[in-house]
Amino acid sequence: MIDIPHPELVATACSLFFGFTGWLWVKVGKPLVKLLKSQDYFKESVEEIRKELQTNGGSSLKDAIIDMKDTVNRIDERQKVIEQRTKAALHYSNEALFETDDNGRMIWNNANFCEMLPEKSVNLEGYDWLTIIHEDEREEVLQEFISCLDMNRRFLKTAKDTKNNTIRLLGYPYRIDDEHHGGFLVSVSKTNEV
Q1: Mean pLDDT taken over the chain
Q2: Residues whose CB falls within 8 Å of the CB of residue 132, separated by 6 or more in sequence, listed in order
Q3: Are the C-beta atoms of residues 4 and 10 closer than 8 Å to each other?
Q4: What digits encode the pLDDT tens for the residues 177-186?
Q5: What is the pLDDT of residues 4-35, one digit of tens each?
Q6: H or E segment at 145?
């Protein structure tokens, strides 16, 4: 066995040394290691972002955004063509047609609808579509139409026109989703019903 002179001084010196090195590790070493690791992570992140923003044959973020913008522009152009084609088909249809907004105000009509009016007019707006219906039935037709708008359902009504002919109004909502719509497209036709 080894004989150590002043063992209490050695124990105190050892505890001071280990205590100081532990304190030094907790206060300086750990934060330094953490800082170095976060600095490496930061450098890697910056390098990845820099690589993504560089043009490198079509696989960069910048190129992807440009491609996406081109795609959106092509979709917009195609949508406009389809819209114009649909409007033209509706305009030249043999059916009398009109379109309303989501409040029931007319926003579009075709020439055949104008021919059904008591006074021929091209400048129709708002609730002018009701002028084709006989005065005695206008309120009832409007209430039914508003009800269909509120419930987002098909509109079907038979009524008399201003010349006492029986007409049939059939409209479908432009569905945006199950609860919302963007108005109605309504066809008006004369029927043989009395």
Answers
A1: 80
A2: 113, 116, 117, 118, 161, 162, 167, 188
A3: yes
A4: 666 667 888 8
A5: 777 777 778 777 777 777 777 777 777 777 77
A6: helix 138-151
Q: What are the structure tokens assigned to 190, written together?
A: 């004369």
Q: How many CA atoms lie within 13 A of 151 on its CB side?
A: 9
What's the CA gap between 98 and 95, in Å, rounded? Answer: 10
Give me 39's structure tokens: 């600095």
- β partners of residue 187: 97, 170
Helix (H) or strand (E) holding 98: strand 96-100
Cβ pair 16, 9 in contact under 8 A: no
Report the amino acid identity of residue 73.
N
- Cross-strand pairs, 126: 106
pLDDT digits (tens, 9 = 90+) for 29-73: 777 777 777 777 777 877 777 776 665 544 667 777 788 888 888
Name residue 161's beta-bridge partners: 133
Phi and psi at 189, nearest 5°, equal -140, 150
